[in-house]
């Protein structure tokens, strides 16, 4: 079973997880510790079961770890997609504003004898903000396509109308991603935290029993310790 298959199989349980714990250590580190614990506990299975730990609790560590890895990957992908979109927006948005302003200039020049058309151009000049600029590109491009003869009469390059429509669509997509959920409120992060919580419940129980069973056997006890915290004190 790969990470995604484990995630798909356990997703109903993860989604229904009532508690939501915030990881205290890097999740990739915790996941590896959990997988190590799975194999370590398998070697001690009989003694652990003899003290009340269920075999299922040991066996569930691996699929829960794989599911948590996949959930972490989904959140990582979403978070970086937003960061990339924000960077792409900062690179392309100025061109959108420049094109919008260029269309307004061209239209005011070409439509100077047509008050009704100039009134529609004025509407595009009134708004402000990114969303307004994106809508202006579409509105102006369509206005231009309805009045191509007037634009060609002034030698306006009407190919900018299609450019404006395409850029409007592109900028709308980029802005939607860039303005997505805040990282701390992300549904993908919540799912990751639930997957972590679901895994940690099993990890904590196996460690609890293991630490008791092997409290006087340092060679085996070490496998039930929290290695990250021990190495970062």
Brief account:
Helix content is 77%, strand content 0%. It has helices at residues 3-15, 27-43, 45-50, 55-59, 61-110, 115-126, 130-145, 148-152, 159-178, 187-213, 218-221, 227-231. The longest helix has 50 residues, at 61-110.
Secondary-structure class: mainly alpha
Summarize the amount of helix as a percent range.
over 70%
Compute the number of strand runs.
0
Number of helices: 12
Number of domains: 2
- Ranges where pLDDT stays below 50 over 5 or more residues in a row are none
Sketch the major β-sheet.
none
Shape: rod-shaped
Distance between the termini: 36 Å
Pattern of helices and strands: HHHHHHHHHHHH
**DSSP strand content:** under 5%
Task: Please tell me about this protein's structure.
Helix 1 crosses helix 5 (61-110). This protein is mainly alpha-helical and 233 residues long. The model has no long low-confidence stretch (mean pLDDT 92). It has two domains: 3-80 and 184-231, no CATH class; 89-183. The chain is 77% helix and 0% strand.
């Amino acid at each position: 079973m790969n990470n995604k298959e484990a995630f798909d199989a356990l997703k109903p349980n993860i989604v229904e997880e009532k508690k939501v714990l915030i990881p205290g250590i890097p999740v990739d580190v915790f996941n590896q510790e959990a997988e190590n614990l799975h194999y370590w506990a398998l070697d001690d299975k009989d003694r652990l079961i003899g003290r009340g730990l269920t075999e299922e609790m040991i066996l569930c560590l691996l699929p829960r770890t794989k599911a948590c890895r996949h959930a972490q990957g989904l959140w990582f992908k979403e978070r970086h997609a937003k960061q990339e979109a924000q960077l792409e927006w900062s690179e392309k948005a100025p061109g959108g504003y420049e094109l919008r302003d260029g269309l307004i200039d061209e239209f005011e020049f070409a439509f100077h004898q047509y008050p009704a058309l100039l009134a529609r151009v004025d509407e595009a000049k009134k708004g402000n903000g990114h969303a307004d600029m994106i809508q202006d590109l579409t509105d102006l491009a369509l206005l231009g396509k309805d009045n191509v003869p007037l634009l060609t009469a002034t030698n306006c390059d009407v190919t900018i109308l299609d450019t404006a429509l395409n850029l409007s669509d592109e900028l709308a997509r980029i802005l939607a991603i860039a303005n997505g959920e805040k990282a701390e409120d992300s549904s993908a992060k919540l799912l990751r935290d639930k997957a972590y919580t679901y895994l940690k419940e099993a990890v904590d129980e196996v460690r609890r029993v293991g630490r008791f069973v092997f409290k006087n056997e340092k060679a085996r006890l070490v496998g039930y310790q929290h290695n990250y915290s021990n190495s970062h004190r």
